[in-house]
Design brief:
Layout (H helix, E strand, L loop, with lengths): L26 H6 L44 H7 L9 H4 L6 E7 L6 E5 L3 E5 L2 E4 L20 E3 L1 H12 L9 H11 L40 H13 L7 H9 L8 H10 L2 H10 L1 H6 L3 H11 L4 H8 L10 H11 L10 H22 L9 H13 L19
Antiparallel strand pairs: 1-2, 1-5, 3-4
Helix pairs in contact: 4-14, 5-14, 6-12, 9-13, 11-12
The chain binds zinc ion.
The site of zinc ion has 7 residues, from loops.
């Protein structure tokens, strides 16, 4: 069957050594991808180190290709090399090394009770196809003689992704509170036959392709950035932004705006409920239109509740709001929340320290899909788009109308 890559069950990312280009992106690369010039740093951009040991003082920029350059629609070998590597101005090999460390989740029999239990290996590395080698680690239920075949009774993952999963499934208790057997059974239900990641999960858009080998997609370095390593840096960055964002409202202007504010007639509970359902962007706009709403948004408990629902992946904002020494007086938290939401939205060509939050945010949404089955609220995962299409085709062949939007598909039960 040849060779293929297996991916992290949680983030869908690779375990391979990733290639970072030795040369800066060429003019031709920028033109081919519709970028007339290098992407400006995001407002959250911090100084980025250059690739360690890869300084190539003789690097060509591609400018000299102009004479006799291949047409843009033609992909040259150099184009393939550039597309098949990450931008050295965005990430370094050192920053990407974390993806090579994997662990696996599988089951074993408890020596004392004979019961089936879930267990996690120590750190290991990926070889090819379904092959890995792992250390025994410190899980007392781990079987050192276990035969490991990825996605055949055994699920590989990165530890940082596992930590995010632990927080999504068990809250503050995290991975210490995880029921590994339940998690194993949940992943079994989310996987298909001969898969290289959990087929029933949506890994995001943009997200990692599920190809035979890891696919480098230009401008998606954030997909392989460690989701929590730069917490201190990003928290400091956000805090600094907040400290600068005090809002000063002219008293006469406030009186004029309040007198014209129809929201002040609404009951407080209704206003709070409405605010709690809005996106950060809509909330910000509403507060600009209504001084009554703006005053409500100076309330710390509101934001604690709001962040836990809308942005639970933003560890930085949650830590800032938990800091009791922090005052809310005149500090424009609504603008800060909107800014973090925008900066951390997963998107192509993003760069800077917010890539870490963006990847965490993406992984968080993957983990949330596991929650209903893990917690027992659902018996199975919703059908994939391919399954829906097959089902519709079968119904059409049988002369049945397609199910209504949101209708329930009857899928065959998947074994434990
Ligand atoms: Zn992962």
């Amino acid at each position: 069957m040849g060779s293929w890559d297996s991916y992290c069950a949680i983030c869908g990312g690779p375990f391979n050594t990733l290639t970072v280009a030795q040369k800066p992106r060429s003019e031709r690369f920028l033109r081919r991808h519709g970028l007339s010039q290098p992407q400006p740093s995001s407002s959250a951009q911090a100084n980025h180190p250059t690739e360690d040991g890869n300084a190539d003082t003789t690097a060509e920029t591609g400018d000299d290709e102009a004479a006799g350059e291949a047409p843009i629609g033609t992909i040259t070998q150099e184009d393939e090399r550039e597309d098949g590597s990450y931008d050295r101005d965005v990430v370094t090999s050192t920053e990407l090394a974390w993806v090579q460390d994997l662990h696996v989740l599988m089951t074993n029999e408890n020596e004392d009770t004979g019961e089936r239990v879930g267990c996690v290996s120590g750190v290991g590395e990926f070889y090819d196809n379904t092959q890995v080698s792992v250390d025994d680690g410190d899980d007392p239920n781990w079987d050192p003689t276990a035969e490991i075949v990825l996605y055949d009774g055994c699920f590989p993952f990165h530890w940082p992704c596992f930590e995010v999963l632990g927080t999504v499934l068990e809250g503050k208790t995290g991975i210490a509170g995880l029921n590994k057997l339940k998690l194993y059974n949940t992943m079994m239900r989310a996987s298909g036959i001969c898969c290289s990641r959990l087929d029933r999960l949506d890994y995001g858009d943009p997200g990692p392709y599920n190809e035979q080998w890891w696919e480098y997609q230009p401008g998606t370095e954030f997909l392989v950035v460690h989701p929590t390593i730069s917490l201190e840096k990003t928290t400091a960055l956000i805090r600094e932004r907040w400290m600068k964002s005090t809002q000063v409202v002219n008293p006469s202007d406030r009186v004029r705006r309040v007198s014209a504010d129809s929201f002040q007639k609404l009951p407080l509970e209704l206003l709070l409920k409405t605010c709690s359902m809005l996106t950060p962007q809509s909330l910000h706009q509403l507060a600009l239109a209504s001084p009554t709403v703006d005053a409500l948004l100076g309330d710390k408990p509101f934001w604690k509740q709001y962040l836990s629902v809308h942005m639970p992946w933003s560890y930085e904002l949650l830590s800032i709001i938990d800091d009791e020494s922090q005052t809310f007086q005149n500090a424009d938290f609504k603008s800060l929340v909107r800014w973090v939401d925008q900066e951390s939205t997963p998107r192509q060509w993003m760069r800077g320290p917010f890539m870490s939050i963006a990847n965490r945010r993406r992984i968080w949404h993957v983990c949330e899909q596991l929650k209903p089955v893990y917690s027992g609220r659902a018996a199975r995962f919703p059908p994939t788009e391919a399954e829906k299409r097959r089902m519709n085709l079968r119904r059409a062949q049988m002369g049945m109308p397609p199910p209504p939007p949101g209708g329930v598909f009857q899928m065959p039960a998947i074994g434990q």
